[in-house]
Amino acid sequence: MKTSLFDYDLPPELIAQQPAEPRDSSRLLVLHRADGRIEHRVFGEIDAYLRAGDLLVANDSRVIPARLHGRKPTGGEVEIFLLRQRDDEGKEWECLVRGRGLHAGATVTVGDVLQALIRTVTATGTRMIEFNEPVRPYLDELGETPLPPYITAYTGDRERYQTIYSRPEGSVAAPTAGLHFTPELLIELRRQGVAFDAVTLHVGLDTFKPVESERVQDHPIHTEWAELSSATARRINDATLAHGRVVAVGTTTARTLEWAATGAQGLDPYDAHACPWQRVAAFGGDVNLFIYPGYRFRALDALITNFHLPRSSLLMLVSAFIAQAHPADVDAGRRMLLATYETAKRAGYRFFSFGDAMLIL
């Protein structure tokens, strides 16, 4: 399948620069994937589509203040963007850097205490950096919470770029489908008999990068660290056995759940002969699951997601999820999703991280 098939045009004015206030006042496009029917609602009305026995599963990872400003011994300014912790102690990180002469062996001073030594330059241009101290205790003082590069006009509280249930720190970008939930909405859903649980996947920047290979299948998917506890795995399996729906809040949650149903158990995620439902297994470790049309979902029944960038792996995942309702036509999901995006554009929906949401049933 050609990557170019997942391209689309988006007027810049539809890229959301401000989040909706309150959070659940964002718009909600409801897509019924079996027949392509579309409904236009407000996110706070999502309870109309959920029922007792359903289980919402969200990604509770918290965005770290990943952008650090430092100086070289010559006084030149340097920006270090933390991508992923590479050791248990928190001294070794894979990073993006901005500045001249930042080759292997170069040093950077951050604040009054932190010293950064560039150990190696990777094939993709990132740097493996060793700090003299564990970095995390200094992030609140020295770091800045990053926003995606397409958000250029937001000057509000960076806490708005966190979900209300975020806990373990580790992401460099927010799991944005969860930004629409408020405490009041979660309480109302609980009263309705809808359960809530969480997994953790620390989101990396590669999640949002466009696929650059000519063929989708040739894209080297990124790796992110994730964890699904035994208690959460049990509740997910119990909900499915009781005929409740597992509703993934966001594509990062979807990847985590599907990995728990396939890769974490040593199963081939693209095995066309595997059973349509698979128990999820608890795990903690790297996830490198690439979901594109042809994939058979085994762990989730519905998906809450935002509107995604052209040519992104996230767009391909959502296309695959829609296509599951059309097993005889692997491309049906892509066509339906892009047609839905055209409807959303005409209706003035706001796209990307601070934008509006979709519920796919």
Which helices and strands appear, and what pairs or packs with what?
Elements: E1 27-32, E2 37-42, E3 55-59, E4 62-63, E5 67-71, E6 77-85, E7 92-98, E8 107-110, E9 114-121, E10 127-131, H1 136-142, E11 169-171, H2 183-191, E12 195-201, E13 224-228, H3 230-241, E14 246-249, H4 251-261, E15 283-287, E16 302-306, H5 313-323, H6 332-346, E17 357-360
Parallel strand pairs: 1-17, 3-12, 3-14, 4-11, 14-16
Antiparallel strand pairs: 1-2, 5-6, 6-7, 7-10, 8-9, 9-10, 12-13, 13-15, 16-17
Helix pairs in contact: 5-6
Describe this structure in words.
This protein is an alpha/beta fold and 361 residues long. It folds into 2 domains: 3-63 and 156-360, QueA-like, CATH 3.40.1780.10; 67-142, QueA-like (Thrombin, subunit H). Helices cover 18% and strands 25% of the residues. The chain contains 6 helices and 17 strands. The protein has helices at residues 136-142, 183-191, 230-241, 251-261, 313-323, 332-346, and strands at 27-32, 37-42, 55-59, 62-63, 67-71, 77-85, 92-98, 107-110, 114-121, 127-131, 169-171, 195-201, 224-228, 246-249, 283-287, 302-306, 357-360. The strands form 3 sheets. It has a 9-stranded mixed beta sheet with strand order 2-1-17-16-14-3-12-13-15. Strands 5-6-7-10-9-8 form a 6-stranded antiparallel beta sheet, covered by helices on one side. The chain has a two-stranded parallel ribbon with strand order 4-11. A hairpin with a 4-residue loop joins strand 1 and strand 2 (37-42). The longest helix is centred in the C-terminal third of the chain and has 15 residues, at 332-346. The two termini are 25 Å apart. The relative contact order is 0.20. The mean pLDDT is 95.
